[in-house]
């Protein structure tokens, strides 16, 4: 069974760092684009960062210069390194990936909570 699972969330203080992990498992031929999204209480889910299959990255303005997305296809894993965290970064973070199984299909993880205290 193909699945996507996030980990690495937790409670940190403002200014600290945290790294999130997104692990794909199951019969997967290859990974496509991978995104990180987040949803804060009472707000819509928003795109935080994206990395294409070729490694091109894009970021939301709110996290540009503080967050870094990367991937290791041999480990079927993507990462979101978050630095200089702010209370407004508090949200549930979700990973979305296009996986070839063998046809291309989008998968979402269950989310991981990140809480940044003042």
What does this structure look like?
The chain is mostly beta strands and about 120 residues long. A hairpin with a 4-residue loop joins strand 7 (about 65-70) and strand 8 (about 75-80). The chain is about 0% helix and about 60% strand. It has no helices and eleven strands.
Short précis:
The protein has 118 residues and is mostly beta strands. The protein contains no helices and eleven strands. Strands 2, 4, 5, 6, 9, 10 and 11 form a seven-stranded mixed sheet that branches. The protein has a four-stranded antiparallel sheet with strand order 1-3-8-7, with no helix packed on it.
Percentage of β-strand residues: over 45%
Largest sheet: 7 strands, mixed
| Terminal CA distance | 40 Å
Tell me the number of strands. Answer: 11
> Mean pLDDT, nearest integer?
97
Given the C-alpha coordinates, what overall shape results? globular
The total count of helices amounts to: 0
**Which regions contain 5 or more consecutive residues with pLDDT less than 50?**
none
Helix content: under 10%
Class derived from helix and strand content: mainly beta
């Amino acid at each position: 069974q193909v699945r996507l699972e996030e980990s690495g969330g937790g409670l940190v203080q403002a200014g600290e760092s945290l790294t999130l992990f997104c692990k794909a498992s199951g019969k997967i031929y290859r990974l496509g684009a991978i995104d990180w999204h987040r949803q804060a209480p009472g707000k819509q889910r928003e795109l935080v960062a994206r990395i294409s299959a070729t490694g091109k990255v894009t970021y939301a303005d709110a996290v540009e210069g503080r967050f870094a997305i990367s991937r290791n296809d041999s480990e079927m894993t993507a990462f979101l390194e978050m630095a200089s965290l702010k209370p407004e970064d508090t949200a549930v973070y979700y990973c979305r990936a296009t996986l070839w199984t063998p046809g291309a299909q989008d998968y979402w993880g269950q989310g991981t909570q990140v809480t940044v205290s003042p």
